[in-house]
Amino acid sequence: MTNDAPHSVVSRLRAGHSAGITRPLSWRTSQLKALRALLVEGRPGLERALHEDLRKSPTEAWTTEIGFTLNEIDHTLKHLEGWLRPQKARVPATLQPARARIVREPLGVVLIISPWNYPVNLALAPLVGALAAGNCAVLKPSELAPATSAALARLVPKYLDTAAVAVVEGGVPETTALLEERFDHIFYTGSGGVGRVVMAAAARHLTPVALELGGKSPALVEPGVDLAATARRIVWGKFLNAGQTCVAPDYVLAIGATTARHLEAELTEAIGDMYGPDPKESSDYGRIVNDRHFERLTALLKDGRIVTGGEHDTAERYLAPTVLAEVDPDSSVMSEEIFGPVLPIVTVPDLDAAIAFINGRDKPLALYAFTAYDHTKARLAAETSSGALGFGLPAAHLAVPSLPFGGVGESGTGAYHGVHSLDTFSHRKAVLDKPLSPDTWSVAYPPFSRIKKTI
Ligand code: NAD
């Protein structure tokens, strides 16, 4: 590893920031265009790395990682000048004459810690916001996607301003050393356990954090909806990247035993349609990231009746798309975030019970619902809390750049994408400008005995 010591990296970037290199709009747009070039020209290398780390197909690498990040860049380039324009604010009559505005200023040097499951997207999409807002950034990719981490460490200094952006590779020791440094913002994506470590480290310097975490996102299915179409949408969202997606439906919450029974057949059929009779042979189906996660996931197979799937191959870390029925709500598969290709179906008698089930657990990163009824949608919107709420399609809300992407409670704090990234990576400074003359403020000066009568 050729990493410089964290302290010297942060000092270098802080010097760049203090010199003001990141402030001009022209610098920000040139960096975003350079990041665009990195993705376009570096695409073959990134695709190879994603395949090596996760056996991602080139199509998935494009739609969920490279193309996704390009969209985020293009959206930002299109709107950045407008987003950076100072925003006028109303001044109350008592303070007139005066002008007020909100001005966005960069925070300084930020740290982006990213996970292994979408190792390009989850490193570079936050970087888009950090650069657009005029910050310097240290990027810490995940050691569990080593090929992608190495590709980013090679490409970033080749394309981006090295006085403002640095990649520090490594695992726990390197991240721990980085967290000793004082940053102006820490943007962390990963598990809640490490999120707590990051937040505690940030507290020492009063550094603000965004924590993009996970959790168990339910897919509620109500009678009356088209179950074949519903199953296709759930299977698409669940088995993408072999289920290793923070916004994947974690489990199905079926209302009524009949819905659950029909779903078993429809989910099985949808899996066959998308991945063929033997998903192991499908070039579109990924592998589990490492042995630890593979062992964790195969241990969950005992927590229900296997409707379809269950086959696994330790050498390849292959686990078939699996549906489990008759699952006990207190079993392991229903207690921890699955983060893999195992889809339990839990049955509840009615919508009230479904809402109570959701509200009885941690607030999820997303709640998905498949329903034919607007009143169900209204009740879910009003009576549950989640990072996002999706009707009819899982995961895709994160591809709408004008929507904030983030969690709530145990699924995280803070949000990003589009203008929301700018909000996260800027300070919104309040500016009040009141002329000294005429001195209309003299009414507020002591002696207060003079103004007593007016209040
Ligand atoms: P991970 O193991 O790759 O860890 C994430 C980052 O934390 C890595 O860069 C890693 O080096 C660092 N890290 C790990 N242990 C650390 C420690 N003790 N101290 C300091 N840094 C440490 O990723 P993960 O945690 O396995 O990611 C999976 C989780 O992330 C799931 O819960 C998933 O839902 C969540 N996730 C959330 C989002 C989102 O956008 N909300 C996206 C992807 C994943």
UniProtKB/TrEMBL annotation:
CDD domains: ALDH_F3-13-14_CALDH-like. Keywords: Oxidoreductase. Residues 24-431 form the Aldehyde dehydrogenase domain. It holds the Pfam family Aldedh. InterPro entries: Ald_DH/histidinol_DH (IPR016161), Ald_DH_C (IPR016163), Ald_DH_CS_CYS (IPR016160), Ald_DH_CS_GLU (IPR029510), Ald_DH_N (IPR016162), Aldehyde_DH_dom (IPR015590), Aldehyde_DH_NAD(P) (IPR012394). PROSITE patterns: ALDEHYDE_DEHYDR_CYS (PS00070), ALDEHYDE_DEHYDR_GLU (PS00687). The active site is at E212. Belongs to the aldehyde dehydrogenase family. This is Aldehyde dehydrogenase. It comes from Actinocorallia longicatena. The lineage of its organism: Bacteria, Bacillati, Actinomycetota, Actinomycetes, Streptosporangiales.
